[in-house]
Amino acid sequence: MMMASHERTVQEITVQEITTLISLHTPIDAREEFSMSEFLRIVPILADPCNEDADLTHITASAIVVSELYGSDQVVLHKHKRLGLWLQPGGHINAGELISDAALREAREETGLDVRHATDTPMFAHVDVHPGPRGHTHLDVRYLIVAPHEVPHPGEGESPEAAWFSYADAEAVADEALIGALRAVRHKLKP
Questions:
Q1: Helices 30-42 and 10-24, interaxial angle, to 10°?
Q2: Where do the domains of the chain lie?
Q3: Closest by alpha carbon to 78, among 96, 65, 97, 92?
Q4: Whole-number average pLDDT of the chain
Q5: Above 60 in pLDDT, residue 5?
Q6: What does pTM read for this prediction?
Q7: Cross-strand pairs, 75
Q8: What is the topology classification, in CATH, of domain 10-189?
């Protein structure tokens, strides 16, 4: 069945919504400011922005997972099996999947925790544009996600190393892009 020109797919709607959120967002640092500019410049020219096979540059989804018990003072990171870096859970978006749902799915798979969005409406927290594998560029949209403070147990095939970190310890092992996301989340969670 062909879609009428006025109908849009779920991903088209969510890409439009996240583009609006990013355009209204206040960056946490110069890196995020640059990433916002790149995201807003690149996404409109991509034929299928969430499809990793459509273009070398595409949107990915990540989760900054904080403890329900400890808030932003405890975050879950996993040690990326190829990169060997402690990172936030995240990855590619499946066909027909909302960006925010991809962040939840990736967090569940990579931590094994019963994660959920922090609020009824998924809370965009940060954006980062960075090189990915195979010459790709990731336009990474990050959401604030909460989980019970339980021992992580990543799914089969995922990196077996996942752990809770205090904010200070997470920042000590994080790369520049993750440090910005951690600071953005802490800023959003300030009373």
A1: 140
A2: 10-189
A3: 65
A4: 89
A5: no
A6: 0.90
A7: 66, 165
A8: Nucleoside Triphosphate Pyrophosphohydrolase (3.90.79)
